[in-house]
Amino acid sequence: MLSACGDGGDSTAAAPPANNSTSAPPPDNVAGFAYAANAGSDNISAYAIDATTGALTSVGAAVATGAQPRTVAVDPSGKFAYVANGGADNISAYTINTTTGALSEVAGSPFAAGSTPISISVDPSGRFAYVTNSLSTNSSAGLSAYTINATTGALTSVGAAVATGIFPRSVAVDPSGKFAYVANSGSANVSAYIINASDAVLSEVAGSPFSAGDPLNSISIDPSGKFAYVTHGSSDTVSAYSIDATTGALTSIGAAVPAGDQPVSLAVDPSSKFAYVANTFSSNVSAYTIDASTGVLSEVAGSPFVAWSNPQFVAVDPSGKFAYVANGHDNYVLAYTINAATGALSEVQGSPFAAGAFPNSIATTRKIP
Length: 369
Description:
Blueprint: E1 31-38, E2 43-49, E3 56-58, E4 63-64, E5 69-74, E6 80-85, E7 90-96, E8 103-105, E9 111-112, E10 117-122, E11 128-133, E12 143-148, E13 155-157, E14 168-173, E15 179-184, E16 189-195, E17 202-204, E18 210-211, E19 216-221, E20 227-232, E21 237-243, E22 250-252, E23 257-258, E24 263-268, E25 274-279, E26 284-290, E27 297-299, E28 305-306, E29 311-316, E30 322-327, E31 332-338, E32 345-347, E33 353-354, E34 359-366
Antiparallel strand pairs: 1-2, 1-34, 2-3, 2-4, 5-6, 6-7, 7-8, 7-9, 10-11, 11-12, 12-13, 14-15, 15-16, 16-17, 16-18, 19-20, 20-21, 21-22, 21-23, 24-25, 25-26, 26-27, 26-28, 29-30, 30-31, 31-32, 31-33
């Protein structure tokens, strides 16, 4: 997952890994910085990641956001960070100091969104951003599109928002930048869109929306671009879909697999070998291996792994060595090392690391060479 997060991204941005189970992150994907959106204190915490141990070091004081920041996303170039402010109906934008990780608000920020924006994703080129407006009337304006100014990071709205299903809760862009997907919690389906590469405009994929069985909490696309995964809050499961590389259509892959109680967030490591799910009510993280041919998930030995109280979000760093979990009720970020052979998690020495009030999301970025 990583989820996909103008003109043009940085030319040093890493390409998606090859589509096989032995692929590894590109060599310049060294752990850099992490950012936690704190919904209870209306700010964002910045951290430097120790590339050897995975430990976090706070970068200055937390920076103000709008009300109730729900999701933070970082562009692939590592130059900009964006926060969806669910209580303010807008998007905060920041430039990232590529040496220190410190944030500075972009001129013109915050940028207007629809009603209650709760999820944001930046496309792999770094040119476009997409935001779900979860409470827009009848979901007629459920997904907003923006272009990103490559120099300043400023957002420019791309026409009217497009319709989604009911209560669009999560958005992800595939690694090719051709398709965007929205998990609709209220209508229990996934909306799929084709992205116009010249202007970010969306058109719905034939057959969309695709049934997902029961209410959804999140959607993630694996870095190979072959598979999509959604978490189900009612059945406490994870479903897998194959992605048609030409049309963007989704096809269900077998039966859903069990997760913990109320799985809310899923992340895939950069090599597409492992998937991790934050389970809020059971306070743990489920870990799975991914079959590179079929996309089927198999639980990792030792899973689920303890994650303190009420984990809200899980992210894997660009090196694929570490996983981070935003722990809402404990006001911490947990850090884990990932066993490269098995996918098992071990908590990093010094973890957990202090965050603001109710960290609801975390994103990581690579160190710029």
